[in-house]
Amino acid sequence: MSKSTYTRRATLLGLGASLATPSVLRAQSTDAFPQNEPAIRDQIPVNRNISAFSQQRWQDHFEELGVGCLLADINSRALHYWGGDGETYRLFPSSVPLTEELTKRGYTEVVRKREKPSWTPTASMRERDPSLPIRMEGGQVGNPLGTRAMYLTWPAYLIHGTHDTRKIGRQSSSGCIGLYNQHVEELFELVKIGTKVRLL
Length: 200
Description:
There is one protein chain. Helix content is 21%, strand content 25%. It has helices at residues 3-28, 123-128, 181-190, and strands spanning 68-73, 78-83, 89-93, 96-97, 106-115, 148-152, 158-162, 171-173, 177-180, 196-199.
């Protein structure tokens, strides 16, 4: 190795060490770590995301618990479930309708449940996308209803699973509330026919 290469390398290493020295000294001083700051657990949490989940109370939305209640909160893109036992509570991220025109709000209830539901696109869906099939059997790859579906008193509005996990947490449905398949399967076992539903 030539003498000039060694000298350049030594100069660069020496310069780097001298620049880092103040940082190292600062890190070792007590001023770098203030001792009088309040513990994080004592600070008020800050919601930096407007759609941050927050636990709800069924009493704020329903007159009675009955066999159970479901609240689909369109703004926070979350689905809340309270069981009829008064103790069971679940909170799931969900997909919500693409637009306000596709969104139906108000009260309804679960009238039937299906495993591996078949899917029949509505006339308006086929008008928007003529390439959609007339019908798709349950269990088929690409079936947008996923592994489970719960039907409401409103025609063509469902709470269902989805194989396309990119949709959860987004405005991505034609009016339905979508869940991850593993979540809809858990919910499916809990929800009874007659469960009250509110889309808010």
